[in-house]
Amino acid sequence: MEKEKDMNTAENMFVVTMQALENYGAHSEDGLNNSGNAQWKFKSGSTYLVSDVDRPQNAMAFVMAAFSENDIGWKEFPTSVEPFVQWMDQMEDDHADSQQGALEFYTSSLQLVSPLTGKKTTKDPLSLFRAGWEG
């Protein structure tokens, strides 16, 4: 009998990055392209740490289904997915020469999510790692 794989280790979690768009034209006008009132601006999207999935495709599909938005004034959708360990290594490399605050900002903005808990999010999940959660 094959042993079940533990999907709640750092090696089996994925980071899904979202892109957001805000339509400034929807604040004071109808915001529609055909009336010339669309004025879309790129905004920072959310970043999710997905547990309880076995493949990056499953992580991205879950985040798309649970957290994407598509309204006249706001759109948010997944743009990338990568293993958590790889994401952390990249964050550490990118911010090696900067103040510690930059790395803390990016890691604290993660939201832990799981298909097993639906739309429930846990803010600053890395505090769980720092507190000794097995990763």
What's the quick description here?
The protein has one domain (10-128). The chain is 30% helix and 33% strand.
Oligomeric description of these chains = single chain
Whole-number count of domains? 1
The radius of gyration over CA amounts to: 18 Å
pLDDT average, as an integer? 85
Distance between the termini: 25 Å
Q: What spatial order of strands do you see in the largest sheet?
A: 3-4-1-2-5-6
* Helix percentage range: 25-40%
Count, helices: 5
Order of helical and strand elements: EHEHEEHHEEH
Structural class: alpha+beta
Low-confidence stretches: none
Say how many strands there are.
Answer: 6
Q: Strand share of the residues?
A: 25-35%
Q: Sheet bearing the most strands, described?
A: 6 strands, mixed
Shape, principal axes of CA atoms: globular
Supply database-style keywords.
135 residues; alpha+beta; 6-stranded mixed β-sheet; 30% helix; 33% strand
Q: How is the topology of this model organized?
A:
Blueprint: E1 14-23, H1 25-28, E2 40-50, H2 56-67, E3 69-70, E4 74-83, H3 84-94, H4 100-108, E5 110-114, E6 118-123, H5 126-130
Parallel strand pairs: 2-5
Antiparallel strand pairs: 1-2, 1-4, 3-4, 5-6
Structure characterization notes:
This protein starts with 13 loop residues before the first strand and ends in a 5-residue tail after the last helix. The protein has a 6-stranded mixed sheet with strand order 3-4-1-2-5-6. The radius of gyration is 18 Å and the shape is globular. The protein has one domain (10-128). The mean pLDDT is 85. The protein has helices spanning 25-28, 56-67, 84-94, 100-108, 126-130, and strands at 14-23, 40-50, 69-70, 74-83, 110-114, 118-123. Helices cover 30% and strands 33% of the residues. With 135 residues, it is of the alpha+beta class.
